[in-house]
Amino acid sequence: MYGGVWGRANLALVLSAGLFAGGVPAYAADLGSDGVADLEERVAELEATTARKGNRKVSLTVSGWVNQAVQWWDDGAESNTYVTTNGSDPSRFRFVGKAKIDSDWSAGYILEIGVASAAQSSNTADALAASSFTLRHSAWFLESKKLGKVTVGQTSAVNDGITELSLAKTVLVDKPITIFTPNGAVSLRNSAGGSVGATWTDLTFGQSTGVGEGDRYNLVRYDSPEFGGFVASANWGEDDFWAVALKYAGEFQGFKLAAGISYGEITDATQKFGGSTAAGNDRGTTLGGSASILHTGTGLFVTFAYGETELAQKVVGAGNDRNYSNWNIQAGIQRKWNPLGNTTLYGEYYQGDFGQAKSNAAIKSSDVDVWGLAAVQSIDAASLDLYVAYRHYSADLKGVAIDVEDYDTVFSGAKISF
Hints:
This protein is mostly beta strands. It has 2 domains: 4-48, no CATH class; 61-417, Porin (Beta Barrel). The chain has helices at 4-19, 32-48, 313-316; strands spanning 61-74, 79-85, 92-100, 105-116, 132-144, 148-156, 187-189, 195-199, 216-223, 230-237, 241-252, 255-266, 284-295, 300-311, 323-338, 341-354, 365-379, 384-398, 407-417. A 16-stranded antiparallel beta barrel has the order 1-3-4-5-6-9-10-11-12-13-14-15-16-17-18-19. A two-stranded antiparallel ribbon has the order 7-8. α1 crosses α2 (32-48). The chain is globular.
């Protein structure tokens, strides 16, 4: 980038020479003092509005998206409408850099910040959640085409997203296992309209990212090179947690397939298992996976996800159910029926069997059923996805003689990527 008076003057000469070299009258190149001043002012303006990076050796890519929605909900006693950040695929901005060391090796980094103005998962029936910034990723990596990739820092464990593999545009609306995102902090209501003393996410013992699903931690992670569509991964951190995963992506005979499975363990109370925020509530093992298949000719697709968690007995208390499991199926069609982009239409069904509730130990276990419908319209020219979704929740609690009111929600919004 040109800098200083001499740099700008030289840039003015270069521009004027190039502009008027091809048969334009010579007097046009005589900008005069006013012309040079105007050009310097324009160069200064361009310098001020240009994204810069620290050096020329490491690339810089800035990307991200904004995902906001309008959500209506009815918990059986109260209803309201919020403007909120979509919790399944929240807004963020990301900086990614990479430098080539030689023909095989490269190094780089990722820094990602999450942005939420009234996050869906934290809104209650009485108030919107406070706006927040969240450090999602801060890590560097070394990568070899032959040997694979090593990442160090705060980033995704290998089971983060393992239950969210989908070939259709469904995750930007709602993730298969993270079913309570649109109402996580809303209390369950009894038939009289009072609070049951637990939120919907409490039923999963606070695992807001989903039972069987991973999260982001400070760790060392390894990803193998792709071989026949397969990638193997493993991570470790602080002698207290580890996970392994295997993913596959391929296409054959007119079908696309994506699948993955992972197993992990956490033995330290300070780690946050599946998004839980309470220290001492996180020791246990997790198994999760998902598979998605899409027929390229018709656009028909099916996605299935499964996850289970077994918490340590000391976490939930002796004699209480410490096994949590859930599954989800999404099915629909994704086709380009108009010039704007793909249209995605789908329905889903979710079933969860949970152990002791997190904030109400009297709830020994619970069964939850959810069904929903959603539509997404992509507008390719603007990197924009418009969506609308409906979900109906019902729960059956064990250990307490309480009939829980059903919960309904409709939310519509847009995700624009940059």
